[in-house]
Design brief:
Glutaredoxin; seven-stranded mixed beta sheet
């Protein structure tokens, strides 16, 4: 079962594409945490490019956006560069965050791969409490960007 609204977010850290450790949980800003299955795939690219193109909406609500997948930080670095993404991508290569948030497929619907993150979105407030949680029913579904933005607006 995934983390629910009102629960404390798991406290852990992951490496970003610049090889820096980024802490998940309480921060001086609200956090939008987007789990996505795999870099360089169609729906994942569309999702993250939507965030890129609308980053001002998130910046204006005092939010940090973090994308998380089980890809290596090197793969994510190339993906970030090619798509000109303007927010951090974190590698959950060991699947610690995906497990802690309850968003890890046993078997990914496509290709029978094991240990791939589900597409999911969480908004975590400055105190580390989950204020929005959405786990998409299938990898082809996108989270509700409107609902995420409404949640963020309500936190400010």
């Amino acid at each position: 079962m995934s983390i629910q609204v009102g629960e404390k977010a798991p406290v852990l850290s992951l490496f970003d594409t610049e090889k820096s450790q980024i802490a998940l949980g309480a921060s001086d800003k609200n956090t939008v945490l987007l789990f996505f299955p795999l870099a360089f795939t169609g729906v994942c690219t569309a999702e993250l490019c939507n965030i890129r193109d609308n980053i001002a909406l998130y910046n204006n609500t005092n939010a940090t956006v973090l994308g998380v997948s089980v890809d290596s930080l090197f793969t994510l670095g190339k993906f970030k560069e090619e798509q000109k993404l303007n927010f951090s991508l974190l590698s959950d290569f060991n699947k610690d965050a995906s497990k802690a948030f309850g968003v890890l497929y046993d078997t990914f619907p496509a290709f029978g791969m094991q240990g791939v993150s589900k597409r999911a979105a969480f908004v975590i407030d400055k105190e580390g409490v989950v204020r929005y949680a959405e786990v998409c029913p299938t990898p082809g579904d996108l989270p509700s960007f409107t609902a995420i933005q409404a949640c963020l607006a309500g936190l400010n």
